[in-house]
């Protein structure tokens, strides 16, 4: 388990997303507590052990935050990303669920905006 995943995800959110309502947090399925803040979408970040998936999640989040909704304005929407313990099969399950609902996933090539970077050392 890479302990830098949450920090790297938050760094990529910070450089790719203009909204301050997107956060990355760490959780464990065995002792899971709800995020400290209420949110509209919660994403299990065991999907993000592959850099392409980090890019895809950033793209999905940005789309969510910029698409009008009947109940929420752009500045009211909030997304929480939760990094969980490792589950390599999670993305395939995630993709399968989307396909069952007539949704498609796109992984590469990502637009330059969604490139994923490691957080710089301080």
Report on the architecture of this protein.
There is one protein chain. The chain has a three-stranded parallel sheet with strand order 1-3-2, with helices on one face. It has one domain (5-101). It is built from three helices and three strands. Helix 2 (51-66) links the parallel strand 2 and strand 3 (79-83). 21% of the residues are buried. It is α/β, with parallel strands linked by helices and 122 residues long. The protein has helices spanning 5-16, 51-66, 90-100, and strands at residues 22-26, 41-44, 79-83. 32% of the residues lie in helices and 11% in strands.
Comma- or semicolon-separated keywords:
122 residues, alpha/beta, three-stranded parallel β-sheet
The proportion of residues forming helix, as a percent range, comes to 25-40%
Number of helices: 3
Cα separation of the termini: 22 Å
Residue-averaged pLDDT, rounded? 63
Secondary-structure element series:
HEEHEH
Name the shape in a single word.
globular
Q: Which percent band covers the strand fraction?
A: 5-15%
Strand arrangement in the largest pleated sheet: 1-3-2
Query: Tally of extended strands?
Result: 3
